[in-house]
């Protein structure tokens, strides 16, 4: 399961037109792309398409109609000059009747060797990883915006990124924490020494812009979502890697985040007219999940490190399982958007007291 999750994440990062021309895809290094794989992912997709049509039929006309692209754009994809996007692969697989797993299985052995090699090195470059945290999702949010009909469902153990991403210091702390977890840094790598590169900052702004403008969002959060973040902050503070001043500034931002959560719960919309339904779980949420529906597409995610995708899966059975599981969680949750004002007030007060308890 871990191996398939990595493959699926590789596909998602590899095929995003907007960003992957300059950044190597997550989990897979440039050396691996050129030396380990006999055929690129794009080559495999093209050969799979050819295997599903008669020899005397050109795929150009089919793909032009199917993907609503010009002939030149299709030719560039077939020649491997630019990769197919993730959404295009979904459309192609649906039309021809093959799965993403079918494509990957053609190169299972070579990929396995490449991942074994790459898992030891790719995550060492935190700048690349931080960029990909944002860039890997921008394409998805663009498609959610453009879709005639879309719904997004988030289950989170901590404060959702939807609420925190506009706050610079908290976002920087998330990236710093992830760098500590994924990169071989010195024991005395201080928060004050951590810098967000310009490319990451730029991608973050794009991420914020598009995420804030998706159409419908349902969020189910752990009742201790703020405490989970505070525990992480206190951990680095107690290790003397985070100064008292920085912790105080993070505390101030947490209050601002809570104000935003309260505002959205009261209005039912954010400032960009995204409809938000907010649930608070009465039970502990054990993992972070997301489920997306847009037009005829479904995607499901599982992630850690705040907002880094570990699983991407467009398989119908899997996404139905995620959706069923999500709906089951709502049975043990309280809906606090524009209703249940007593419970909503109690939730906000509990979180405010939790933040205030940071000494």
Automatic annotation (TrEMBL):
Higher taxonomy: Bacteria, Pseudomonadati, Bacteroidota, Bacteroidia, Bacteroidales
InterPro entries the record matches: Tscrpt_reg_BetR_N
Short name of any one Pfam family annotated for the protein: BetR
Protein name (record): BetR domain-containing protein
Domain Transcription regulator BetR N-terminal, residue spans: 62-104
């Amino acid at each position: 399961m871990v191996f398939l999750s990595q493959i699926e994440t590789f596909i998602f990062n590899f095929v995003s037109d907007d960003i992957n021309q300059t950044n190597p895809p997550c989990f897979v290094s440039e050396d691996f792309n050129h030396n380990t794989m006999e055929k690129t992912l794009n080559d495999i997709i093209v050969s799979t398409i050819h295997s599903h049509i008669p020899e005397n039929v050109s795929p150009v006309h089919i793909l032009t109609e199917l993907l609503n692209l010009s002939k030149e754009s299709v030719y560039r994809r077939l020649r491997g000059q630019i990769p197919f996007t993730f959404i295009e692969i979904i459309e192609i697989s649906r039309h021809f009747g093959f799965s993403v797993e079918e494509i990957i299985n053609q190169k299972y052995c070579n990929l396995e060797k490449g991942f074994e090699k790459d898992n030891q090195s790719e995550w060492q470059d935190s700048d690349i990883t931080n960029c990909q945290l944002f860039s890997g999702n921008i394409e998805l949010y663009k498609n959610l915006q453009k879709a005639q009909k879309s719904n997004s469902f988030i289950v989170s153990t901590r404060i959702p990124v939807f609420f925190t991403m506009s706050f610079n210091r908290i976002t920087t702390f998330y990236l710093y924490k992830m760098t500590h977890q994924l990169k071989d840094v010195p024991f005395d790598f201080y928060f004050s020494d951590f810098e967000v590169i310009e490319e990451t900052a730029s991608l973050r702004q794009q991420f914020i812009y598009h995420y804030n403008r998706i159409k419908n969002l349902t969020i189910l959060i752990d009742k201790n979502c703020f405490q989970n973040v505070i525990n992480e902050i206190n951990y680095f503070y107690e290790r003397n890697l985070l100064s008292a001043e920085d912790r105080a500034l993070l505390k101030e931002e947490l209050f601002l985040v809570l104000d935003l959560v309260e505002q959205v719960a009261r209005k039912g919309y954010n400032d960009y007219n995204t409809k938000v339904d907010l649930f608070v779980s009465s039970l502990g949420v054990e993992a972070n999940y997301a489920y997306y529906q847009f037009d005829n597409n479904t995607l499901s995610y599982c992630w850690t490190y705040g907002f880094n995708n570990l699983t991407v899966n467009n398989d119908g059975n899997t996404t139905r399982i995620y959706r069923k599981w999500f709906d089951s969680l709502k049975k043990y949750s309280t809906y606090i958007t524009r209703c249940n004002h007593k419970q909503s007030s109690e939730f906000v007060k509990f979180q405010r007291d939790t933040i205030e308890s940071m000494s």
